[in-house]
Specification:
single chain; alpha/beta; Rossmann fold; eight-stranded mixed β-sheet; globular; disordered N terminus
């Protein structure tokens, strides 16, 4: 069955609150986010369709600032669901606008943007078909949607290690790459590129990984997650199970990163 809407994703209010709390610590641990976003920037058209550019899920504004340098700040928009992230970004000063909003219901006019850029934000949206429909509505004819996201298989080492300990949900779950393919193909947008690329990071121990996830605001937010503190015996079981994924660089943590570049058909093109 295709996950047109994923019921197991966390409530958006929890996502917004978690990332708001993480605003001050996010940039200090965002090596993966920087690398993935930079790779996505390199896939953008040199001269996008005229109109505003939108950084969708703009977070601390790291890539908003790069987009402003590249395409001009005057028509730039940084949008995020987490008010704390927007406050943090705004405090650094910028000439572009900041908007609180939801990718599934963009508070923007039809045909108003020439470029929508979104890096590692859309995996939190349960109704990805709505995200694509909103992007199609807001983009000008000929405009570009470029996004990176996460798909199933992300942090499989942590998931499998917890599975050896108990049957609870300890790791965030994401839609399958095949679902991204199906939803993009049905979106009415033209798929220029849609690929998945694994990114592997290494940590000295499990605590370093879980500390980073918490500092990013991306720790376990799933429904069904265990409440309260993790018992000593279960934690010891996790540490022991995760050792199976250690190599000479440390404990491996793999992210399955989706890259996509889609365009809205030009006027008169079906």
């Amino acid at each position: 069955m295709t996950d047109l809407a994923l019921p197991h994703l966390p409530d958006k209010r929890q996502v917004a609150a978690s990332f708001s709390r993480a605003a001050a610590s996010y940039d200090s641990v965002a090596a993966l986010q920087r690398g993935v976003g930079q790779a996505l920037l390199e896939q953008l058209p040199a001269a996008p369709e005229a109109g505003a550019w939108l950084d969708l899920g703009s977070g601390t504004g790291y890539f908003s600032r790069q987009l402003a340098q590249r395409f001009g700040a005057g028509q730039g928009l940084a949008l995020d669901i987490a008010e704390g992230m927007l406050r943090h970004a705004r405090a650094q000063g910028a000439e572009y606008a900041f908007i609180a909003g939801d990718a599934e219901r963009l508070p923007l006019r039809d045909n108003s943007c020439g470029l929508i850029f979104s890096s590692l934000a859309l995996q939190w949206c349960a109704d990805f078909a709505a995200v694509l429909a909103e992007a199609r509505r807001v983009l000008r004819p000929g405009g570009t949607l470029a996004f990176s996201s996460l798909c199933a298989g992300t942090l499989f080492e942590l998931r499998e290690s917890w599975r050896a300990v108990d049957g609870m949900v300890h790791v965030n779950r994401f839609r399958r790459f095949e679902d991204y393919q199906q939803l993009c193909a049905a979106s009415g947008l033209q798929v220029q590129r849609l690929t998945v690329q694994p990114w592997q990071l290494h940590y000295p121990d499990v605590r370093a990984l879980t500390h980073e996830l918490k500092a990013l605001g991306a720790h376990n937010l799933n429904p069904g997650r265990p409440g309260g503190l993790t018992g000593r015996a279960r934690l010891q079981g996790l540490l022991q199970a995760y050792e199976a994924y250690r190599d000479e660089a440390g404990l491996a943590a793999t992210y399955q990163v989706v890259y996509a570049v889609l365009s809205k058909p030009a006027m008169g093109v079906a």
